[in-house]
């Protein structure tokens, strides 16, 4: 099983940017699709973005209050790392952000239950 460690979270003012990283250990991310999710206090975990291994296709949440248009997911397979670039951050983006790995490399799924491995999360706090 792959171990995932997120980093890059922190406190940022509204309108600012952060880049989250998700580094893998134990095995490479070859043949894994990767996803980013977030969970705010009192809310369910929600999908943010995903990227497949095959063709590197990306998917973003379509919910009206999602981060679509403000985030970019990418992966550096040589570094065994996945990134989430977040721009124009809002206070409502405050949450713990998790990365996850899916052993179906073509599946950029939004369903958290389809991911096999999870990191411990990194806190993102956006002040107004």
One letter per element, helices H and strands E, the order comes to EEEEEEEEEEE
Mean pLDDT metric = 93
* Poorly predicted runs: none
Structural class computed from helices and strand pairing? mainly beta
What percent strand?
over 45%
How much helix, percentage-wise, in residues?
under 10%
Largest sheet: 7 strands, mixed
Number of helices: 0
Radius of gyration: 13 Å
Number of strands: 11
Name the overall outline: globular
- The N- and C-terminal alpha carbons lie at a distance of 39 Å
Describe this protein's structure.
- This protein is mainly beta.
- It is built from no helices and eleven strands.
- The chain has strands spanning 3-7, 10-13, 18-25, 33-39, 46-51, 58-60, 71-76, 81-86, 95-102, 117-118, 122-127.
- A hairpin with a 6-residue loop joins strand 4 (33-39) and strand 5.
- The chain is globular, with a radius of gyration of 13 Å.
